[in-house]
Amino acid sequence: MLDPAQLAALTAIHRRGSFDLAAAALGVTPSAISQRLKSLEETIGHALIRRGQPCEATEIGLRLIRHYEQIALLEGALTRQILPSPAQQTPEWPTLRLAVNADSLATWLLPALAATEGLLFDLVIDDQDHSQQLLRRGEVAAAVTGHPGPLQGCDTIALGALRYRATASPAYMARHLAQGPGRAALMQAPALTFSDKDRLQRDWLLRETGSRFSYPIHRIASSTGFVEAALLGLGWGMNPEPLVAAHLAEGRLVELIPDTPLDVPLFWQYPRLMAETLAPVTRCIQTAARSCLIPVPGRSAA
Fold first, then answer.
1. What architecture (CATH level 2) is domain 1-90?
2. Tell me, what DSSP letter sits at residue 295?
């Protein structure tokens, strides 16, 4: 049997990035954390943590962390079944670590998490085109991703598509695109991007102009900051329709090219072995997604 305290120490070191922060998270001394890790490494016969800034788990360490967190979720679900009364339940709720994209978090995901009881959430914010890799490596227990799969050992549920609009303020349009959003003008007009992983602006430009080209970029890693930057005329960007619908209706923002939305399909992926345990949060996520996302024809759970 693996020692849960030792697995908790390993997990905390990797999640927090240092022995001192792991000790603070678990309420023990750094020396106790070090001893627990040493004992676990001796039991397993492999190094489990790469010391550095930050400390990171090895591949075997990640497998143990995934095992520990899945067991914690299973035990939490069992406890809620055995002790159905809230007054009797343990306050030590299990933590579900999820990879999500920032725009989902800003538009539809939080109501789903709020409707799920008995869990704490540890959200890892990453682009929808990259979140599946976190699930593949065992860094998260489930993911909202732009990849339909297949991913070995995982189930995939199609959630719908988040609709984006290429938007800017009227003042920005008058200053930078007065003659229309042609290729030459767009090469000079400042755009917004969330990060170097963000492909939405490039994908929209390729679809609308038929070519790839460079253009000035402001990097703003905030969904609400993206909208505010567009309102202030800092640049144009692909904004989620739920965040800008009112601004478009009232003329504070306009589309660069009318009626040219970009729909980004999203999927919920999780380990097949955890399907029953994650069923409550899966139901809440599907319900919240239906209230905000665009149905995608031909997409279904796999």
1. Orthogonal Bundle (1.10)
2. P
Q: Which of 183, 226, 229 is nearest to 205 (CA)?
A: 183
DSSP string, 175-186: HH-TT-S-HHHH
| Residue-level pLDDT at 86 | 54
Q: C-alpha distances in angstroms, 187 versus 138, 182, 201, 277?
A: 40, 9, 12, 50
Measure Cα distances from 175 to 48, 227, 279 in Å.
56, 18, 51
Which residues lie across from 57 on neighbouring strands?
49
What pLDDT was estimated at residue 302?
A: 44
> Could you tell me the end-to-end alpha-carbon distance of the chain, in angstroms, rounded to an integer?
35
The residue extents of the domains of the chain are 1-90, 93-296
Q: What is the CATH number of domain 93-296?
A: 3.40.190.290
| CA nearest neighbour of 44 among 58, 30, 54, 33 | 58
pLDDT at 161: 97
Q: Which residues of the chain have pLDDT under 50?
A: 89-90, 301-302
> What is the C-alpha separation between 297 and 281, in angstroms, rounded?
24
pTM: 0.80
CA distance 165 to 112: 24
Cα 64–chain centre separation? 22
